[in-house]
Amino acid sequence: MSETTDWFPGPRIEQLGMGKTWVKVLSSSTPSPFGVPQNVVDSLVALCAKAGNTLEAAMSDERTPVVTALCRQDFDELQKEMRSIKAHYFIGLTDAEFISLGLRPHKDRSPIPPPEGFLEGDVSYPGVHTLDLYIRPVAGQPSFDTRSGSGYRIYWGIMPHGGATVEAATGEKRELMKPPTSGKELPHSRWSRRRKERFSFDGDSGKTVYFCIRYENSKGEVGEFGPIFHAVIP
Q: Any idea what the CATH number is for the domain that residue 139 is in?
């Protein structure tokens, strides 16, 4: 079955409707849900607006061959962006999250066992405000296999020097008031199958970010939390 008939709508009005649904979901909180970078969300917003304008023109008395061609081009760009977002970020979502995006939940093609063991990570500093986290195998623990149906979830939280104020701890960033002792205390998370994840922390230089990783399969079943580790944001 092709990807188009699998999940992407055929009629353009439905494609635009799904794009707007994604914009609403991805703009519902900061940072954006599912680890979608803000520049990707902004691109989707712009493409939806552009496609909506040309579709309106193509369905009006202003329709010309040029308008029709522009409409086709704009929807091709919108479709390409949505396919990229789905492939890179809509991974390991719950049935409710898939439905909120206008998508059908995945059906498991084969049994996926519950995760066992835990993971650790190493951090590098590729640039200002930026950290790269590399998944590291742990002796005596199950290895990470990108070919399996399992992935992992990275939990993180930022703590300013001396700990966050109550206002900062309850604000959008939910900064930490003290060093965490468990992954349960970290307010943000991202699911992935990649061996490296990049994090951007604009405006947070000098603050400490705490990480914790645990296995999580595509059904949402989780393993145990790994050890807490941290880095100072450059």
A: 2.60.40.10
